[in-house]
Amino acid sequence: MPGHDNARVTAVLGPTNTGKTHLAVERMVAHSSGMIGFPLRLLAREVYDRVVAMKGPERVALITGEERIVPKDARWFLCTAESMPIDRDVAFVALDEAQLGADAERGHVFTDRLLHARGREETMILGSAALKPVVRALVPGVEIVERPRFSDLSYAGAKKISRLPRRSAIVAFSAEEVYAVAEMLRRLRGGAAVVMGALSPRTRNAQVAMFQAGEVDYLVATDAIGMGLNMDVAHVAFAGLHKFDGKRRRRLFTAEMAQIAGRAGRHQRDGTFGAIAEEGPDAFLPEEVLAIEEHRFPTLDTLFWREGAPDLSSVDALLASLSAPPMHDALRPAPEAVDLAVLRRLTDDPAVRARARGQVDRLWAACSIPDFQKLGVEPHARFVARVFGYLAEGYLPHQWFADEVARLDRADGDVETIAGRVAAIRTWAYIAQRRDWLADPAHWAARTLAVEERLSDALHASLTQRFVDKRTSALMKQIGAGAGALPVEIGPQGEVTIDTHAIGRLDGFRFTVAPEARASDKRLLLATAEKRLASERRSRGEALVGSADDAFVLEPGGGIVWGGHVAGRLARGRSLARPVVVLDDALNCLDPAQRRAAAERMQRWVEGQIAAHLPALTALATMARDPAATPALRSVAGAIEASGGLTPRLPVRVAVEALTGADRQRLRRAGVTIGALDLFDARLLRPRARGWRAALLAAAGLAVPDAPRDGASVLPRGAPGAVIEAGYRPLGAQAARIDLVERIARAAHDARNGRAPFVPDPALATSIGLEAGTIARLMTELGFRPLPEGRWAWRGRPPAKVAAPRRDNAFAALVELGLG
Questions:
Q1: Nearest to 27 by CA among 108, 110, 126, 172
Q2: Which neighbouring-strand residues pair with 94?
Q3: Which residue ranges in the chain fall short of pLDDT 50?
Q4: Contact 529, 503 (CB under 8 A)
Q5: What is the pLDDT of residues 69-101, one digit of tens each?
């Protein structure tokens, strides 16, 4: 272009990984001063950090829309293309990714810098080889240097996400797609770092640091990684090949695919690329693969252009200059960008036009506020109108600015919420960098930067929490080294850790995955832990088999607890007194021999406990099956055992009356009381015996009545346990314990003289707690009839035929048929 010395301009062109940016940095620091314009704030920050390490912070400046670090003695400037102070006299100037001059939204900025940004001693234009003809046309005398790629880039075919190699970057084209892919990788591979252009440098650096350090082996990104961000990526996988470019959804151009795929491989290490889909619209075409591998793309014959220094004398002059056609065949008019669209909407308002007289520069500066939140032209135009309304009066109101910043200074919420706040605070950070917009711009620049950093830290933490499962990540790394390398440790409380990361608990023999692990992770964690927990379970199995009796505890429902956890449970056996032990499913992890030994050990314990606490049941079971016993004894013994050691007398009265003296003696030796109303073993009413009796009944599938734990003498009728099956006989409004009922019955019989009237001693019944009505009901059931003046007389027992036999066991049925 006229007025510029193009003899000192060099265009360094080539594909990715050719060292172009590295060369520009080396050339810049070799000069006394210099400036490089980058396409992304992230990239500008990355190179700024590198140059600071070489030259010191007092000599290096960073200028972006939202951040401005300009020391007094700054000599080297790292900037975004839009923020380059091109009027500053420096020895060296470079423009990175100059092929973005063909971008519909920002192309005109890069074209303007390509045409006008010049160094006093040297200018360097960096970009794709596709720039070659247009650079020659626009910059006469330019020296073009083409650089080959340092390493080979080859197509590796399509691979599902679950089969992607480590050190892969997966590229998606929207935040929603990025999050979806990251979530899938978290489930399958333990997590992924996330990189998007909308992230602040602080968040992006923290995420990339995880990837670089190997904390995660996968990175999910938007096409922002194609703009020179340096990471150790071996493979780039495309989650799709279509993107929304702001106006329509379209397939990526081959050059765009190459720019992104080229992130694979670094320096001399080769890289690969591929897609997630094997076929369909998101699969690579053979011609695209060939073009990317051989770096052959259509050349750029034109770039987008818009007047870079528009006429600010009036609104109409500004609009006219921004709409002016280019004066060179290699340039074409830029599509209407957001800033121009906002300007047109604002200037349609006569009030804005009136306010803009003499302040057109301020109006255009306000329209240039980027739409970081992607609100769209209309909402963004309303915000810009408000900003300009304040600027037309002087400064932006302190309180309004402070309130808006304070509203965003919150780190709570999910990833999307915090990311939205980061985008919003960038707007206020951009405004704070305008020196004449605020009364105290330095204060607000520092304040907005501090808020952005806090939000960035929160966003990094939220991204890591949501998309990185350190347990699974650690497992995947160890699995790669072989299952034997897994450092599984079991803590004193059963906590299971792998590489210091808690993955679950081993409770007895059952491994439970950590509750915070999602369902999709459990299969991996379970499989990994199982490989290393076999020996521990084997040791626990040996300990169970060798345990003393006091190591086992019976649960109310029949579970057998060992080591604080259920190891087995009682099940129906040959008889109520002879249940069998069924191992808990958790012991399926043991080998068959150990399982048999464990079952036999618990069976011996159960038999010993029944013999100790329920001796009558064992004896009754033997009598009921003794072929030498009388039919009456077998019937009575079977009925008592089947009822759990106690049964009403009336249903088995025929068999009881048929018992011989020897039979009765044998029952008494077994501990059975043949009472006036009930047949029972009084020892069953003790707390330990009650628990075992209930467990045996449950194992046999019989109803287990509630029973009072304190063995109360009397219960209100209808209270839990106030039934014969629980050892209590209902009598009117009360229920009395059957052994106490028998004591009262014996006292009454001892007091009578044949059938002569008598007055029973009420002391015993009263001491037990029986009411007068209960005592009267009991005396009646015992076979006494009431007489005047509190006397009673014996009338004898009712005929056996009035009895309603129990039908819940075979022995009772035999009695009913007279076959007992």
A1: 126
A2: 36, 124
A3: 1-4, 6-7, 479-485, 800-807, 810-820
A4: yes
A5: 999 999 999 999 999 999 999 999 999 999 999
User: What per-residue confidence (pLDDT) applies to 23?
Assistant: 94
Coil, strand, or helix at residue 252? coil
Residue 692: φ, ψ to 5°: -70, -40
Cβ atoms of 707 and 690 closer than 8 Å: yes
User: How many angstroms separate the CA atoms of 395 and 397, rounded?
Assistant: 6
CA distance 507 to 485: 24
Judged by phi (left if over 0) then psi (alpha if -120 to 50, else beta), residue 571 lies in beta
Tokens 């491989």 found at: 265
725: closest CA among 804, 644, 670, 653?
644
Count of C-beta atoms within a 10 Å radius of residue 213: 9
DSSP 194-233: EE-TTS-HHHHHHHHHHHHTTS-SEEEE-GGGGSS----B
Burial 330-344, CB ≥16 within 10 A → b, else e = bbbebbbbbbbbbbb
pLDDT in tens, 481-496: 444 445 667 888 788 8
Query: What CATH number does domain 6-146 carry, 3.10.20.310, 1.10.260.40, 3.30.70.120, 3.40.50.300?
Result: 3.40.50.300
Phi, psi of 139 (to 5 degrees): -125, 85
CATH architecture, domain 153-294 = 3-Layer(aba) Sandwich (3.40)
Residue 716 to residue 733: CA distance in whole angstroms: 6
Tokens representing residue 175 in the block: 């935040």
- Angle 625-631-633 (CA atoms, 0-180°, nearest 5)? 70
Among 550, 537, 546, smallest CA distance to 584 is for 537
Specify the 3-state DSSP secondary structure of 174: coil
- Cα–Cα distance between 673 and 116 in angstroms, integer? 115
CA atoms within 13 A on the CB side of 557: 5
What confidence score (pLDDT) does residue 798 get? 60
Dihedral (CA of 353, 356, 360, 366) sign: negative
Q: Are 73 and 59 a contacting pair, CB within 8 Å?
A: yes
Tokens at 528, concatenated: 């990994």
The pLDDT of residue 814 is 40
Q: In whole angstroms, how far apart are CA 787 and each of 247, 752, 781, 791?
A: 107, 14, 15, 5
In this prediction, residue 571 carries a pLDDT of 92
In terms of Cα–Cα distance, which of 675, 733, 693, 433 is closest to 558?
693
What pLDDT, on the 0 to 100 scale, is given for residue 471? 57
The candidate with the shortest Cα–Cα distance to 468, out of 501, 497, 500, 495, is 501
Residue 784 DSSP symbol: E
Residue 235 buriedness (CB in 10 A; 0-12 / 13-18 / 19+): buried
If you compute the radius of gyration of the chain from its CA atoms, what whole number of angstroms results?
Answer: 45
User: Encoding tokens for residue 702?
Assistant: 């019989």
How far apart, in whole angstroms, are the C-alpha atoms of residue 13 and residue 21? 11
pLDDT at res. 805: 43
CA pair distance 348, 333, nearest whole angstrom: 22
**Single-letter amino acid code for the residue at 12:** V
Q: H-helix or E-strand containing 798?
A: none
Domain extent listing, the chain: 6-146, 153-294, 303-466, 470-545, 549-613, 615-816
Q: How long, in residues, is the chain?
A: 820
pLDDT of residue 93: 97
The answer to whether the beta carbons of residues 536 and 543 sit under 8 Å apart is no
Half-sphere exposure of 22 (CA within 13 A, CB side): 10
Contacts 24+ apart (CB under 8 A), 393-400: 395/437, 395/438, 395/439, 396/431, 396/437, 396/438, 398/438, 398/439, 398/440
Calpha distance 262→516 (Å, rounded): 38
Equal fold, 6-146 vs 153-294: yes
pLDDT of 54 reads: 95
CB of 570 closer than 8 Å to CB of 695: yes
